[in-house]
Amino acid sequence: MKVYVAGPLADAEAVREVQSALVAAGHRLTLDWTQEALVAENYASRPDASAAMAHEMLAAVLDADAVIVVTSDDDGRGMFVELGAALARAATGALDHVVVVGPIRRESIFYFHPHVRRVATIEDWLTSVD
Question: Which Gene3D superfamilies does this UniProt record tie to the protein (predicted)?
Fold first, then answer.
């Protein structure tokens, strides 16, 4: 299955751990945005590069068979855009798996949308889809 993993930039290590578990289970990432080449700060100072990154990230969400959102104590911004895109696809029947992994820390009403499945660990989701 093609999978996109969203999460806060400040908690990229937790995202990498989820990505590793998915790949080890035989799934393929549509994009690993945690790679240093893709992660940028000061977006306004690099508008062309930032626009390209935003396009690439959204395209990866649109290409995914599953979108996983990793919860965190850190505030996320882009992860909620990615969650919104995933929910829009799910609402039209184009995406079956929208998953929030981990304890709800920075609560969003969209974590409770009917198309979202909440699990404690990525392993919980993996055992349900294998």
Answer: 3.40.50.450
